[in-house]
Design brief:
Layout: E1 3-13, E2 21-30, E3 33-38, E4 47-50, E5 54-58, E6 60-62, H1 83-94, H2 99-115, E7 118-125, H3 134-144, E8 147-154, H4 173-187, E9 196-202, H5 210-223, E10 227-231, H6 235-245, H7 249-255, E11 263-267, H8 273-282, E12 285-288, H9 290-295, H10 303-309, E13 312-315, H11 328-343, H12 350-364, E14 381-385, H13 400-403, E15 410-413, E16 416-420, E17 423-424, H14 429-444
Parallel strand pairs: 1-4, 1-5, 6-7, 7-8, 8-9, 10-11, 11-12, 12-13
Antiparallel strand pairs: 1-2, 2-3, 5-14, 14-15, 15-16, 16-17
Helix pairs in contact: 2-3, 2-14, 4-5, 11-12
């Protein structure tokens, strides 16, 4: 289906430069690109999708995930733990994963994202037990049909050397860098409209060496790819940085080359004013993960201050062992509510939070070809049915985060329909869930 006309949408939230909102508008998709936006468009030979009762947004963008964790939701012993204790409970379970677990867990996680309106997701895979490779998650993304930013994560400092992860899950640093080169050369597509891009992503300052952080930055810039890691997630994170490095996380990142337009950090809950200013000046991006931050008791990230300073901010669902859901619309609603409860009801509107989930995420990932409904942008579109019970009685159906829905009616990625009438078109989801359940039961036993 190369040409599609979405006809007469109730509302089109474009997220374009003018923040246009169109009523009763048409959108023409041609060859994976938005060819026209307007009223009464003529598209002879195009497949028609009727937009009555539909709000159209750009596809949502997920800037931080650990897809492998979809196999370890609600694990006893980790349900009520803070970050470091949570990790120590889960590391031994993750050490039993292999390629099948990685691929199937990623398939389910990406399917869940698609049903919540997500068209593009990053993934931070930082452990590779029993022959698992980044290739496993890339295969899953191709099967589901989402645009995918895979990041080659790593851990190199195990418990015997003062790190947090068990020694069985860490890798030799030279081998890490070599595999980064392999996956970039094999999969990274720098072109506009790319379906797969690869980034370099040492896990965190407390699981890799200073040397690996610096070398990873040099490698990424030599290859022209982006950099990603966790930073300033909670009070433990700040204390570790001060004790081990003698500085706050922002200064540590800057000293090692981890600031700039090609870098985005996950969480950043505990950034102070000087670090926010540093990120704004350097155009460093932030993946805000509000549900995970709540679940792990990490705190409320200063998103209002970041936005006001000009920091690029997108949203991330984070891993399903710390969320435990993977619904990006629910994440956007939580982002809005947390800024309101912390600072007042006028501090973040439903439309601003939705912008973080669409254009904001695309900008964080360096995808200026996505995140907007405008001529020439990629045809990544989420269509929301506002005729159901979630929106019944709503005076402003376009305020999706106030009244729902949280599941998409139709989803287009690069002009291809991935969700139709609320059902995935690319895989048999029931069979995938059965496979996931068998693997999870095996890990429990």
């Amino acid at each position: 289906m190369s040409r599609v006309l979405i006809r007469g949408a109730h509302t089109v939230l474009t997220m374009d430069d003018a923040e246009s909102e169109l009523t009763g508008a048409d959108i023409l998709i041609d060859g994976g690109v938005i060819a026209a936006v307007g009223h009464g468009l003529d598209a002879e030979g195009a497949a028609i999708v009727y937009g009555a009762g539909i709000v159209v947004t750009p596809g949502l963008v997920n800037t931080h995930h650990h897809l492998y964790q979809t196999l370890t939701r609600a694990v006893p012993g980790a349900q009520d733990a803070m970050l470091f204790g949570w990790l120590q409970t889960l590391y031994p379970i993750w050490a039993r994963f292999g390629p099948e677990e990685m691929r199937v867990s990623a398939t389910i996680g990406l399917a869940e994202l698609a049903l919540s309106g997500c068209t593009m997701s990053s993934d931070h895979l930082y452990l590779y037990p029993n022959g698992a490779r980044l290739d496993d998650t890339i295969d899953a993304a191709r099967e589901i049909g989402l645009r995918f930013h895979a990041t080659r994560g790593a851990m190199s400092i195990g418990q015997s050397n003062g790190g947090l992860p068990p020694d069985a899950l860490v890798e030799d640093e030279a081998a890490i860098l070599n595999d980064c080169i392999r996956v970039i050369d094999a999969f990274h597509d720098p072109a506009e409209g790319a379906m797969v891009r690869v980034g370099v992503a040492p896990c965190s300052p407390f699981s890799v060496s200073r040397e690996l952080m610096r070398d990873a930055a040099l490698l990424a810039r030599d290859k022209g790819v982006m950099l990603h890691t966790h930073l300033a997630e909670n009070d433990e994170d700040i204390a570790y940085s001060l004790e081990k490095f003698g500085c706050r996380p922002g200064q540590y990142a800057e000293d090692l080359g981890w600031t700039g337009d090609d870098v985005w950090h996950a969480h950043c809950v505990k950034l102070d004013a000087s670090e926010i200013d540093l990120f704004a000046r350097s155009r460093t991006g932030v993946a805000h993960c509000p549900c995970s931050n709540c679940r792990l008791g990490s705190g409320i990230a200063p998103v209002r201050a970041m936005r006001d300073a000009g920091v690029k901010v997108g949203l991330g669902v984070d891993g399903s062992a710390s969320n435990d859901a993977g619904n990006l619309m629910a994440e956007a609603r939580m982002a809005m509510l947390l800024q309101r409860v912390a600072q007042g009801a006028d501090k973040m509107s439903a439309r601003e939070a939705l912008r973080l989930a669409t254009r904001g995420g695309a900008e964080v990932l360096g995808r200026r070809d996505c995140g907007q409904i405008a001529v020439g942008k990629r045809a990544d579109l989420a269509l929301w049915d506002v005729t159901g019970i979630e929106s019944a009685g709503s005076w402003d159906p376009a305020a999706l985060l106030l009244a729902g829905p949280t599941k998409v009616r139709h989803l287009f990625v690069e002009g291809r329909q991935v969700v139709r009438d609320g059902i995935l078109t690319t895989i048999d989801l029931s069979l995938a869930i059965e496979h996931q359940t068998r693997l999870a039961q095996g890990l429990m036993q």
